[in-house]
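Query structure, 239 C-alpha cells:
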C-alpha cells in the first residue's frame, strides 16, 4: 500500500473496531446467558404472586448486584494483575482462550443434559420459597451459580484480555449484567402493562417453561459453546 494511502486511514479506526467487536461479543453472550431458567423461572413465579412488583424488583436487584460484584472482583483483581504482567495479550492467546473456554462449555452442556431431570426437579421444587425474601433468593441463586458461570467467565476473560482501560472494562461488565437481567425486567414490565390479565399470561409462560426446562438449559449452554469455539477456531485459522 502506498505511504499516502496508509496515512488516510484514521489512526483510531482499528481500536474502535476492536471495541465494537468486543461489545458485540459481550451483548451476544449476555443475551444467550440471560435466558437462564434458574433466574427466569423464579421471576415468573414472583410476577404471578401476591406482591409481584416488590418481589420481582427485589429478585432483580439480588441477581444484578451479586453478578456484577463477582464480575468486577475478577476483572479488577486477578484480571488487572494478569495485565500488569502481560499488558498486551497476543491475538493467538485471546483466540486460544476463547477456544479453550468453548470446549469447556461443551462439557458443561453435556453434564447439564445428563442431569436434566434432576435440574428440573431442583428448580421446580423451590417454587414455594422464593416469594418470602426475593432479594436474598436472587442473591443466593446467583452466588450458587457464579462458580460455574462459564459464559460469564468467557466474557470476563475477553474483556480483560482486550487490554482496554479499567473504565472501559467496568462499562463492559455492567453492560453484560444489564443484558443478563433484561428478561427479568421484561417480565416485570409485562406484569405492569397488562394488569390483572398479565397474571394469566405469566402463568401460561411459566407452565411452558416448566415443560421445556430440562432441554432449554443445556441447549442455551451449548449455543454459547458453539459461539466461543467458532470464534476461537476461525480466528486462529485466519490469522
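Result returned for the query:
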Amino acid at each position: 500500500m502506498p505511504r499516502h494511502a496508509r496515512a488516510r486511514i484514521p489512526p483510531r479506526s482499528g481500536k474502535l473496531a476492536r471495541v465494537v467487536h468486543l461489545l458485540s461479543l459481550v451483548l451476544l453472550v449476555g443475551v444467550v446467558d440471560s435466558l437462564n431458567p434458574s433466574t427466569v423461572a423464579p421471576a415468573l413465579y414472583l410476577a404471578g404472586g401476591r406482591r409481584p412488583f416488590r418481589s420481582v424488583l427485589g429478585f432483580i436487584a439480588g441477581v444484578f448486584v451479586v453478578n456484577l460484584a463477582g464480575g468486577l472482583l475478577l476483572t479488577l483483581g486477578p484480571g488487572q494483575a494478569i495485565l500488569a504482567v502481560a499488558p498486551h495479550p497476543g491475538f493467538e492467546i485471546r483466540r486460544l482462550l476463547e477456544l479453550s473456554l468453548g470446549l469447556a462449555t461443551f462439557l458443561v452442556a453435556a453434564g447439564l443434559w445428563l442431569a436434566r431431570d434432576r435440574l428440573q426437579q431442583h428448580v421446580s421444587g423451590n417454587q414455594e420459597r422464593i416469594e418470602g425474601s426475593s432479594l436474598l433468593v436472587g442473591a443466593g441463586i446467583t452466588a450458587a451459580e457464579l462458580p460455574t458461570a462459564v459464559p460469564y467467565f468467557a466474557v470476563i476473560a475477553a474483556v480483560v484480555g482486550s487490554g482496554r482501560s479499567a473504565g472501559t472494562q467496568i462499562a463492559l461488565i455492567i453492560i453484560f449484567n444489564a443484558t443478563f437481567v433484561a428478561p427479568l425486567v421484561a417480565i416485570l414490565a409485562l406484569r405492569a402493562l397488562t394488569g390483572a390479565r398479565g397474571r394469566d399470561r405469566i402463568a401460561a409462560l411459566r407452565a411452558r417453561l416448566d415443560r421445556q426446562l430440562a432441554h432449554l438449559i443445556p441447549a442455551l449452554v451449548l449455543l454459547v459453546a458453539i459461539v466461543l469455539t467458532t470464534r476461537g477456531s476461525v480466528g486462529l485459522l485466519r490469522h
